[in-house]
Amino acid sequence: MIQRLETLLRWLMQHQFVRYVFVGGVATVADWGTFWIASDALQAHYQTALVTAWFLGVLVHYTLSRYFAFRSRAKQVTRQVAAHITISIISLGLSALSMYILIETLDFKPMAGRVTTTAAIFVFNYFMHKYFTFNERWIK
Fold first, then answer.
1. For 73-113, how does the pLDDT look when each residue is reduced to its tens digit (9 = 90+)?
2. pLDDT of residue 140
């Protein structure tokens, strides 16, 4: 049984998308945890909590994506970080707009809006990072 589990894990870790899902999960926990602490525990406005959580999420996401999900060895780290931040800022704008609509118009609770927004933007982020941020030919 343990050997089958080890084989399954090795097979899963060979797939970039699976590694990206794992990285996304870790970054999401950091993001949502920070969002929850800021918005609920500290009573910050949901947009302030969103931006605060976004900063931590971007840091965790870039680091784990570079070394684990995409296994990048690019020497142009500055360009890579700039691409990651640019895509992340676009995602933040989409998140802020989506959350505004969900919370102010559709009466979602802030955390429910954050979960919905994260799920909606996940696929966009994967393809943007795969084809731009961590594409060795584009980064040169």
1. 888 888 899 999 999 999 989 988 999 999 999 999 988 99
2. 64
Residue 110: CB atoms within 10 Å: 19
The position carrying tokens 């941020």 is 133
CA distance 124 to 23: 15
Q: How many helices (H) and strands (E) does the chain have?
A: 6, 0
Question: Which tens digits make up the pLDDT trace of 10-60?
Answer: 787 788 888 999 999 999 999 989 999 999 999 999 889 988 998 999 999
Tokens describing residue 78: 């500055």
The packing angle between helices 16-36 and 46-64, to 10°, is 150
The number of distinct structural domains making up the chain is 1
Are the beta carbons of 23 and 73 closer than 8 angstroms? no
* Whole-number Å distance between alpha carbons of 114 and 19: 23
Residue 5 has pLDDT above 90, yes or no: no
* Contact (Cβ atoms closer than 8 angstroms) between residue 32 and residue 115: yes
Cβ(84)–Cβ(58) below 8 Å: yes
Range of the domain at 67: 2-139
